[in-house]
Amino acid sequence: MNSSTSARNVRRRRSFWVAASIILALLMGPGPGILLVNSAKPIWGFPAIYLWGLLWYAVELVTVVYAFLFVWDENDSE
Amino acid sequence: MFDIQSLLTLAQADGAVESSLSGLGRMPVYILAGYLVLLLILGLAGWIKSKRGEEDYYLAGRSQGWLVSSVTIMATFFSSFALLGAPGMVYREGVMFALFSLNVPIAGLSVYLIGSRIWKAGRRFGYVTPGDMVADYYGSHGLLKLLVAITCVLYVLPYVVMQIQSGGILSEKLFPGEHTIDLGFQQLTVGSFALGSTVLAAVTMLYIMVGGMRSVAWTDLIQGLLLISGMLVSGMAMFLAFDGPANFGQRICAELPDNSLTIPGNTGGWPWSLLLTVCAFGSIGSMVQPAQWMRFYAASGTRTLKRGAVIFAVVLTSCFILGVMLIGLAGQLLYPLNFTLQESFEIPADQILVEADSVAGFEQSMNAEHRTWTWQTDDGYQFQLQEPTTNAEQRSATVSWNWMGAADRNMPSTAQSEFSELSSHPNFRRAIDRLAAQSADPSQRPSVAAHADVKDYNSILVVVVSQKLPVVFGQLGAIVAALILVAIMAASMSTADSNLHALAAVGTRDVYDQFIQPDASQGRRVWVGRILIAVATVLALIAVISGQDEQVRSQYDIIAMIAQMGLMAIAFSAQLLPVVVDMLFIRKGTAVGAIGGLAGGLLATFVCGPLFKMLASALGSPQVLTDVLNAVGQLTSTVKVHGSVWGLVVNVPIFVVLSLLTRHRNPGRVREFAETFASRG
Q: How far apart are the C-alpha atoms of B122 and B504, rounded to whole Å?
């Protein structure tokens, strides 16, 4: 296996994890996952679903920044 | 999707907004005047830097750097929904709507994933509009190009009209009354609505006409920065006004009703299925609308879009979830919502419920149709009996129980006994019992209304910012409040200018150049675009101003129809998604598949949306349409999802099946697209 094939495989694997993280964040944040914390009881003094939203916002953000740094390569192909 | 409604309802919230704005003095006038002059200067600068040719006018020579590209994409994505509708939705529904912010990173990802490939194809083949690319790839320059143009116009048109209307609405709030303008030879008296919408339309039209995309993008830079700071500052100001985030959070948990802290929100209208599909499809659908598509072409390279994607995802999401959404929550603390439970019951024509002329503890009022008995307490509880005064065979009376915010919803037994004393009628007594039982059952969802001082959900930002900031932060607060109000105008203008500019490009390239005069020179096509901008602006302005006239509105309610179109705008543009995904990533579709899918998707979106109801009503509700409406109504109320999903459910299977049955008209182009995407950016 040459180095360019190996690099492509690494990028493909990373792309998979980026896609999986975004889909997970969508399903858990605004999706059915929200039912896990759907209670009026506060967590650390804040509404539970607001903190839940912040958590999945953080996941989305880290994923986008990770994709920017390690996956997206404007000089590369598909 | 929500933008249009937010503008229309803001128009109805007069008293509260006007009284809260009066405390700001002349500050908004000076800031607004300075802002408008700056826009004209930037428009002129864009014209000075411009070169001849279509690419320069529509795409700024495909040379926009990362800062201008990022902010113009953000400013186009923003509309007045960001500052009016979003906090209004949080005020109405509660914390759950803050999670709507999670759609923004998805849109940010699209900026790179979709945008970079659109940029590559645009650069190689010289595309200017979405229709150019779709028609060229599938080898269908007639019907498919026309369908894409129609999809674009369905998105663009309502946004242009409603943003111009927002200028009028905001002007009415900021500078109420009539204004006299001295023209030298004549004095002209105009209402503030007409003045505001005309100024917004004229300034926007001028800078687009002279400078094209360059002026639009540069003004978007100012407007975008105003918006970002307005959204962030308004949210952060709430933290300060409530003595820090911890105290703010504790008060929200303690003082908001349970439904405000959970999904599906206060009205019960936001199950996770709707929230999820709005975040997934609404966001991507708004990134393939024509103005955004053209911004991808206009970028200087894929590196620009890569940076733009990250800036979009980080900055814009923070503006929502850590910024303007907090205004809605603060609004619920400062102006608690009104909740009402109601019971109706029948009374025979010859019977009167309350014989006495007055009853201790109750206030009586009367109009042509009802006599109303009201009981209320200082802490917001209210009981009301509404008895009809007409002499119909069977008459319907109502009793209602009202409370505010997180107050205990239970009707106390002592109060129930007191209400029962109003009348001995058995139907009335049974209705009181049912009402008391409803109040004790938390699963019975009450109807929701904004606080009397706010009147309308979508004016919550205007009321909170203009009333709270000057009180808490003094003169600095007044300046910030005025800036935030100008940011609302900026949100409208940045959406109107991008859409007007895109409308001109679509009209010129996809219709004039394709069907009217295919051999026109580039210079001529630019002038046709400019004329289209002027004509579209003037027509939109006429629709907006004449829409205020009661007589005109009673015959042709154009604004209501356009507002309904606006509600479906993103759902319509999302119908381009199967074609976009195929062209950019899969490359298995054909022209017949694309035409069939797009036509089917647009039709299904139309049938499942409010416009079909209007059409059926205009045609006198024939049986066949009524049957379809009932079936669709049952489906859409059972499965609550974003409007685009219904179109895509029809669009995708048609696209796939027809593509499997037919062949691509230009296989060479498919190979070229694959090579283009594999090339360096």
A: 18
Q: Flag whether pLDDT at B15 surpasses 70.
A: no
Starting at the edge strand found earlier in the chain, the sheet holding B394-404 runs B363-366, B370-376, B382-388, B394-404, B338-348, B447-449
Q: What is the DSSP string of B104-129?
A: HHHHHHHHHHTHHHHHHHHHHHT--S
So what's the pLDDT on residue B18?
A: 52
Residue B252 near residue A49, CB atoms below 8 Å? no
Residue A58 lies in a domain: yes
Number of structural domains chain A divides into: 1
- Give kind and range of the element (H or E) at residue B458: none
Best mutation target, B66, B69, B90, B99, to test chain A (most A CBs within 10 A)? B99
The pLDDT value given to residue B56? 87
Domain membership of residue A75 (yes or no) is no
Instruction: Decide if A74 and B303 are in contact by the 8 Å CB cutoff.
Output: yes
B295-305 pLDDT, tens digit each: 999 999 999 99
d(CA B544, CA B164): 7
* B308 touching chain A per CB within 8 A: no
Q: Which domain holds residue A45?
A: 3-70
* Nearest C-alpha in B relative to A26: B276
For the record, the structure tokens of B246 come out as 């911890």
Q: What is the pLDDT of residue B452?
A: 87
Q: Contact, B266 vs B88, CB < 8 A?
A: no
User: A39 — phi, psi (to 5°)?
Assistant: -140, 150
Q: Do residue B249 and residue A35 have CB atoms under 8 angstroms apart?
A: no
Helix, strand, coil percentages, rounded to 5, for chain B: 70, 10, 20
Residue (of B488, B637, B651, B500) closest to B577 by Cα position: B651
**Please, which residues have CB within 8 angstroms of residue B488's CB and are 6 or more apart in sequence?**
B80, B83, B84, B166, B170, B230, B461, B462
Residue A28 lies in a domain: yes
**Mapping DSSP to helix (H, G, I), strand (E, B) and coil, where does residue B469 land?**
helix
For chain A, helix, strand, coil in percent to 5 are 70, 5, 25
Closest partner residue to A49 among B99, B103, B306, by Cβ? B99
Per-residue pLDDT, averaged over B225-253, amounts to 89
CA dist., res. B413 & res. B420, Å (int): 10
Q: Enter the pTM of the model.
A: 0.86
Kind of pairing between the strands at B382-388 and B363-366: unpaired
Closest CB to A56: pick one of B102, B112, B306.
Answer: B102
Picking from A30, A47, A65, the nearest residue to B253 by CB comes out as: A47
Q: What is the DSSP string of B567-620?
A: HTHHHHHGGGHHHHHIIIII----HHHHHHHHHHHHHHHHHHSHHHHHHHHHTT
CB B510 within 8 A of CB B146: yes
Contact A34/B275, CB-based, under 8 Å? yes
Task: For residue range B574-609, list pLDDT tens digits in order.
Answer: 999 999 999 999 999 999 999 999 999 999 999 998
B103, A30: Cβ pair inside 8 Å?
yes
| Pairwise CB contact (< 8 Å): A38 & B102 | no
Instruction: Check CB contact under 8 Å for A34 and B272.
Output: yes
- Give all strands (DSSP E) within B97-229, no chain letters: 178-182, 187-191
Query: Is the CB of A72 less than 8 angstroms away from the CB of B272?
Result: no
Count, residues in chain B:
681
B101 touches chain A (CB under 8 A): yes
How sure is the predictor about B486, in pLDDT bands with cuts at 50, 70 and 90? confident
Asked whether residue A77 is assigned to any structural domain, the reply reads no
